[in-house]
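Predicting holo structure, flavin-adenine dinucleotide bound.
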Amino acid sequence: MPVYVFIERDETKIRKTSYEAISYGAEIASIVGNQVVGVVLGSIDKAELEGLSKFGCHKVIHCPDPVLDQPMIRSYVSVLSELMEAEPAEFFITAQSALADPVAAMLAVRTGASVATNVTSVPDLENGCRVQRGIYTGKAFETVELKSEKKVISIRKNACGIKEYEINAEIVTSDLKPEEYSDVKITGADKVKGDILLSEAKIIVSGGRGMKGPENWGMIEELADTLGAAKGCSKPVSDANWRPHHEHVGQTGIKVSPDLYIAIGISGAIQHVAGVSASKFIVVINNDPEAPFFKVADYGMLGDAFQIVPRLIESIKKYK
Ligand SMILES: Cc1cc2nc3c(=O)[nH]c(=O)nc-3n(C[C@H](O)[C@H](O)[C@H](O)COP(=O)(O)OP(=O)(O)OC[C@H]3O[C@@H](n4cnc5c(N)ncnc54)[C@H](O)[C@@H]3O)c2cc1C
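Done. Tokens:
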């Protein structure tokens, strides 16, 4: 039985987190002695499809029906469950996202599978099928056993890494059509402006109330541009309209998972940290040694941001 991986698109490009899901699926496949089948729904660049074998896919099923260009959960589930009926699988893997998590949950209900979301470990198959998952916004972990024959697992961003493989994937175009649902229709979409999406960014430079006012954001922008980073901010900053709301990071804003998160003049309140704890490295710049953010930082710079940040920009430019 293959290990299915749901490969999510952002328009016609594959999301970075889907590569993590494929690598995770490949690890399971190597344990159970099977192959990874990636599933792509909707329009996608040909080169992106062909590149999937590099991350561990043995076969890619592409369903290009134009209805699937719209990220509609029920349409997606109808196609995925049909695929799983045609060629049953024990494991179905997704990478956590606003779309993939409800797809995982609904698919599990439809196929009678056990489901675990926010998963951070490869299954321990010695005693049943146990995985670790993050709970309490990443502050604790629990181990759960998936007891059904079929298992749907949604992995947490940045928890499992990306590995490269040398495989020549077979690419199969499927003419499967989703069931039609008429109760919800996307009639338009306004994309957030900005070159780099926070949810996909590898580096994020984020500012808080310690920046004192919107007039001081020039150095946050310059640091972000120098690093090729996306810009974020704390909630009070967007509440005060110093920055647009789509930059608000945290429990009630966007949850991010970059390789590097640089927090400048942000205290590190629990609600902010909840949204950034999946970052690989956190660098904190703050003039208060008691700022809670230092407790979760990988690197800390204690001092005045107005002195540190310009010097940091200068050093990075010199280094470049
Ligand atoms: C239900 C709920 C949900 C929430 N959701 C979110 C959320 O999603 N995201 C979020 O961010 N917040 C959220 N909050 C708000 C959160 O509790 C904090 O109030 C907020 O994160 C604080 O923002 P801040 O760190 O920018 O400001 P402050 O708490 O005012 O901290 C400013 C920091 O800047 C430092 N500083 C000051 N001057 C300088 C300087 N010159 N150089 C360097 N450092 C300096 C200070 O030492 C301080 O640590 C939520 C709150 C609630 C109740």
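The chain has a mean pLDDT of 92.
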